[in-house]
Design goal:
Arc Repressor Mutant, subunit A, single chain, three-stranded mixed sheet, flat, 5 helices, Dna Ligase, domain 1, two-stranded antiparallel sheet
């Protein structure tokens, strides 16, 4: 992939936003630094960054695509109330793939896991959370 200033700016915006951000959020972040930065350039840069493997496009249920840096596999659990995102442990996905292979003679080529539900915080406190998608702590609580 050819490295351009626009692609680098979009990549850096994703870093600054902490991932799981939409194209609109990326455009808004870039407008803080460069007012008038074309939204079409954001979309073209995201397309190139995704095609190159630098950025992962996550489809987290309904709504727009969310982008994050491509580091490892991307399996998610998403809270349908607050929109919080939890990364699913790769070991669990490997167990599922192994089960499919050994128990059903089904050879996975690509696995994308998305679980939609309600996080612990929203189960305990149904009051609305902030509008920014958050990362849910994947560790079990006792």
């Amino acid at each position: 992939m050819r490295r351009t200033a626009q692609r680098e700016m979009v990549y850096n915006a994703i870093v600054s936003l902490g991932g799981h951000c939409t194209a609109d959020e990326i455009a808004a972040e870039l407008h803080k630094v460069r007012p008038g930065f074309p939204r079409s350039t954001v979309y073209r840069a995201l397309e190139a960054l995704t095609a190159s493997g630098s950025v992962f496009a996550a489809h987290l249920g309904d709504g727009p695509t969310h982008y994050e840096l491509a580091a490892g596999d991307h399996h998610h659990a998403v809270c349908q109330v607050c929109g919080g995102v939890m990364h699913i442990q790769e070991e669990l996905v490997k167990e599922l793939e192994q089960h499919l292979q050994e128990g059903h003679r089904f050879r996975p080529v690509r696995t994308e896991v998305l679980v939609v539900g309600v996080c612990d915080d929203c189960s305990r406190n149904p009051a609305p959370h902030g509008s920014r998608r958050r990362i849910i702590d994947p560790h079990h609580r006792h």
